[in-house]
Amino acid sequence: MAKAYEPINIYCASCGAPAKFDIARQVYCCAYCGGETGIREPLAEKQGFRQMHRARLEAKRKEFPLQKARCGGCGAEVIFPREEMMTSCAFCGRNMVRQEYLGVDGFPEILIPFKVTEDQARENLLAWCRENQSRPEARDVRKHIDELKGFYLPYELVKGPTSCGVSRRESKIYRCRGFWEGSFVNTSKQLDNLLLDGMEPYDIADVKEFDFSYLAGQRVKVRDTDGETTAARVGDEIAAHYRPFAAKVLETKGVTVTADTGNMVELSAVLPVYYLRAGNTLAAVNGQTGKVAVREKKDRYLMPWWIKPILGSVLFPALAYGIMTLFGVEQMGKLLVAGILFIFLLLVLFTAYHNEYGGLGRERLPRRIFTSDDEREAVTPPEFYLPIDGRNRAVDMKFTTPWRLFLMIFLPAVTVFLPLILGFLLNGCSAEGLTVGGAAVWLCIMVPLAPVFMLKFGRLELYEHPVVHYQTDDGRRRRYRGAKKSWKETWDTVKAFVFSPFVLVILFLLAVLVINTVLVVHWDSF
């Protein structure tokens, strides 16, 4: 007997068997016949299902008398059995206006039925309150527990391939791609996305084609987001799930993820949820699994941007002070150099960080979501890729490798004290007789330039030049150093450097270095 059609599956265009997505080749592959299905073909197939489903609902509509109530405050619309009394809005508390509901436009294509009763949901929420009795949210929930109500809430099921652009604020954009096996996105304006995410996941195996018979004794909230808003929410949902992976790769929390969802299959759905508003505290219970989610009552904020410049301004002078102590520099000289370095760094770092972060103010974080268990929706990590040898290849990227961190700190420090280091070596590895004052000109030039180099090339430019590895066709791991330049391009680069003013600057610095090294060693001879 043929297996029943499952609306959430992707089927092979050749034989009709379920197909799996190949991320590398960006096609659906059938394990049964070996056929390939393009990423756009499932979209047309689901459109056919959508039309047949609507025709079935139209035929059954008159068998189920329903009413609709609209909130005069938040605008929420709820469909419910005619015999039920509904006077106030569960989402904002204001009055509802009742009217006959005759259409089928507000109904979805799929749903997951309720498995948890209202009494069980209430007990699960009270159990969370007992385990978190010290939290103010628990006290709010306990006071309003009788206001917990069950709803079929509107969602969009999304499934299919997606690609994302990932960047660290204004830096270079990197590309990643992945495949979603099925995720639900809230399509209600009034409800908190993070709260509803917290009570997930749902078991997608329980998905059914929507039928009016599931509404017996239940309320259905009507979807009230338009197509553009829903598409934006789908993109935001995917971006939110991929952001931790992107932050780990780019090694910073300040990442921007933009998702392209144009090739994903979308089906409208309703999911079982018990919902409670208790002042600024929101709570939800998963109507399929019983998982509890409670939203934090108050806002939180990131550490102010100006703390990092202060820490950097203290750290580098302290390092310089320690190095000068090793070389036996007198106390007054150490304090003078460290003090000048601190003032200069404070100005430079404050300016650099203010230009990048100052306009953001104090950045507010999303409110935390407290849950009854740690189970999360399973997300397959995205695959970063680059065009290599004429095709897109999966790559591993690293930015702050141990060697890079070492060079970022070691090279500026050595450069600043280079005349002293060379003098120490020329003096038979002895600090006796060396004069720090002989390196005054070099220090005046390099003390300001070294921290600028660290900030610009060791930090800000770091995210423009990752260390990239990829796997070759024969399975070997290879470092990718960028597209190879032709001999002409290389020669043009050398000529541009040789005839640039920068060469004169290098010659000038070399002359200063030689003179200051001699003065450090032979100061008493002049």
SSE layout and pairings?
Blueprint: E1 19-22, E2 27-30, E3 36-37, H1 41-60, E4 66-71, E5 77-81, E6 96-101, E7 110-111, H2 118-131, H3 136-143, E8 149-167, E9 174-186, H4 193-199, E10 208-209, E11 220-221, H5 227-250, E12 256-260, E13 265-278, E14 281-286, E15 292-295, E16 300-301, H6 307-326, H7 331-357, E17 364-365, E18 369-371, E19 383-388, E20 391-398, H8 402-416, H9 418-426, H10 440-460, E21 467-471, E22 477-480, H11 487-498, H12 501-522
Parallel strand pairs: 7-13
Antiparallel strand pairs: 1-2, 2-3, 4-5, 4-6, 5-11, 7-10, 8-9, 8-12, 8-13, 9-19, 13-14, 14-15, 15-18, 16-17, 19-20, 20-21, 21-22
Helix pairs in contact: 2-3, 6-7, 7-10, 8-10, 9-12
How many independent structural domains?
3
Largest sheet: 13 strands, mixed
Low-confidence stretches: none
Rounded to an integer, what's the Rg over CA atoms? 32 Å
Assign the structural class, choosing from mainly alpha, mainly beta, alpha/beta, alpha+beta, or little secondary structure: alpha+beta
Number of strands: 22
Count of DSSP-assigned helices: 12
Q: In angstroms, what separates the terminal alpha carbons? A: 104 Å
Helix content range of the residues, please?
Answer: 25-40%
Quote the beta fraction: 15-25%
- The best one-word shape is elongated
- Determine the mean pLDDT: 82
